[in-house]
Amino acid sequence: MKVLVTGGSGYLGTHVRRFFSAEDLSRRSRLDVLSPLDTTRAGFYEVVIHLAAFSSKNPADAENCFRTNVEGTVNLLREMAPGSVFILASTKDVYGAHADHYAEVPESCGTEFDAQTALEWSKLIAEK
I need a surface site. Which of 1, 46, 82, 117 has the fewest CB within 10 A? Predict the structure, then answer.
């Protein structure tokens, strides 16, 4: 099985890549999810595990969050081969303070605006 891990040179990505003997698509490998040319690689894999993200909660980084987390995800999805599997890593923070009421956050938890940052909104949009 051919597996590609985006963000595969970060802490989690390194371990996921090693476990699956997967290839890496990350800025450290000189590849970027914002590059349509680089993301064409996704079409050659049976599984893409998408861990790449811009993870800042600083309001000054909002544009970078949306570009990387939404546009980067769309770039990959456009290139996926029919029948392949796409696994997206997100964050429980997409639920904002709504998640505070649960020990384990159910998928039915609301995602209405509750002080989420651009990071959480961009991850939620990517999920949708």
Answer: 82
Whether residue 43 contacts residue 79, with contact meaning beta carbons closer than 8 Å, is answered with yes
Which are the contacts of 109, defined by CB distance < 8 A and separation ≥ 6? 95, 98, 99, 102
Return the number of other C-beta atoms located less than 10 Å from residue 121's C-beta: 20
pLDDT digits (tens, 9 = 90+) for 53-105: 998 889 999 999 999 999 999 999 999 999 999 999 988 888 888 888 889 98
The phi-psi region of residue 90 (left if phi > 0; otherwise alpha if psi is between -120 and 50; otherwise beta) is beta
Residue 123 contacts residue 91 (beta carbons within 8 Å): yes
The alpha carbon of 96 is separated from its chain's Cα centroid by a whole number of angstroms, namely: 18
The pTM for the full model equals 0.89
Which amino acid, 124?
Answer: L
Angle CA 14–75–45, to nearest 5: 55
Q: What are phi and psi of 23, to 5 degrees?
A: -85, 160
Cβ-count burial 50-61 (b if 16+ within 10 Å, e if not): bbbbbbeeeeeb
